[in-house]
Design a protein that fits this description.
Elements: H1 19-23, H2 25-38, H3 40-56, H4 62-76, H5 92-104, E1 116-117, E2 122-123, H6 124-127, H7 140-157, H8 162-170, H9 175-194
Antiparallel strand pairs: 1-2
Helix pairs in contact: 2-3, 3-4, 4-7, 5-9, 7-8, 8-9
Length: 208
């Protein structure tokens, strides 16, 4: 999220540091297996998210993409967060995938020229009170939590109008930015509807 009228990224789709995620892959493998048995709906959305992330950011480490997809699925299925765009017929998952695609290209290490950080590019100077450190702004769960609360606040203030909420999230009335987010969200939705996933967990999704 930026507070200036110009969208400026230091990092776009590309390589991301993955050592921390590589070390945690054994744990997440078990969590994914448990999700598959315990919460099929969340597991389904995890797989859709992972497939989309792979297609968008092909240079990103596979382990990083797995962690990002799981964090998104966990977040979307949490009871705390729920908003949709009825005008554009987009559910919560599609909105979140759209904004992350435009903001950080699913790279949790992204930092903008305006010091916006993480998946949802939360503007550090404005919202730093919600993080214990700059490093925490890149924590998947914390960044999603803060970014979604900000966007949810703006959705409420905008009468659930996604475009108006995106203006506030960006900090400027920029139709190009709003169009990109909405188009990215619609593209994710179409990928889900047009190409349903097979009912099998492949090795890469399980961290193998």
């Amino acid at each position: 999220m930026k507070i200036a009228g110009i969208v400026f990224f230091v990092l776009v789709c590309g390589f991301s540091h993955g050592s921390a995620y590589d070390k945690g892959i054994e744990n997440i493998r078990g969590e994914i297996e448990f999700m598959k048995k315990d919460d099929p709906d969340k597991y389904r959305d995890f797989r859709y998210a992972l497939r989309h992330i792979r297609s968008i950011n092909k240079k990103q480490r596979e382990t990083t993409s797995i962690f990002v997809a799981k964090a998104v699925a966990d977040h979307v299925h949490g009871k705390k967060y729920r908003f949709t765009s009825n005008e554009h017929r987009l559910n919560f998952l599609s909105v979140i995938m759209g904004i992350i695609r435009v903001e950080s290209c699913f790279n949790p290490h992204a930092v903008s020229g305006k010091n916006a950080r993480g998946l949802m590019q939360v503007h550090w100077p404005t919202w730093k009170q919600y993080f214990s450190s700059q490093e925490e702004a890149h924590d998947l769960n914390r960044n999603l939590s803060v970014g979604t609360q900000i966007l949810g606040l703006y959705m409420n203030r905008s009468n659930n109008d996604l475009r108006l909420a995106l203006y506030k999230y960006l900090g400027a009335k920029d139709d190009r930015y709003a169009d990109k987010v909405i188009a990215s969200a619609i593209a994710f939705k179409k990928s889900v509807l047009s190409n349903p996933i097979k009912d099998i967990l492949d090795g890469a999704e399980n961290g193998r």
